[in-house]
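job 3f2a | input accepted
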Amino acid sequence: MTDINSSDLTPATRPRGIMPWLRARLPYFVVLVMALVGVAYTSMSGTPLYGYWEVLAVAIGLACIATGWRKTADKAARKQLIVTQSLHWLAFLIAMSILMFPSVNTFLNGPATGLALMLLLALGTFVAGVHVSAEIAVLGILLALTVPAIAWLKQTALILFLIALVIGGVVVAFRPERANGA
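job 3f2a | predicted structure (182 res):
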């Protein structure tokens, strides 16, 4: 079975529709969801998932190498890709580990630790994407944008819940009566 790269296809032979587009970007959506799950768990439990963030960073690093590998045919360029991406992600793994040291982590509560780890992962993903692929860079931007979104949602969750209750109450109070004619 051969693997067809969408960039090798001409516009006339490229698959159309939303499903091929979503299928091609499924790994990016999976990473985004996994990062959100990590922040949610860290926020709810109050303790960071020590291995989870490292595994996620390594997975993104491997995805960067795989993406860059497909774009280069030169053996020297591939070797340089492996070395630079390995050093890049090693630096971010070290930064994440420093953030989770007990002496450093005492300054942050659980939700802040989760958001800080997410921000480090977003920065690492964006910078790696600048060198490898625009899609990975966009994933880094999306990861970074979720940090203030999660913080805002946490601060406004109660008010959003109360607004939903009021809207639900108005809908129930003013719904039209149905005649039971049957």
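job 3f2a | Residues 68 and 132 are 5 Å apart (CA to CA).
job 3f2a | closed
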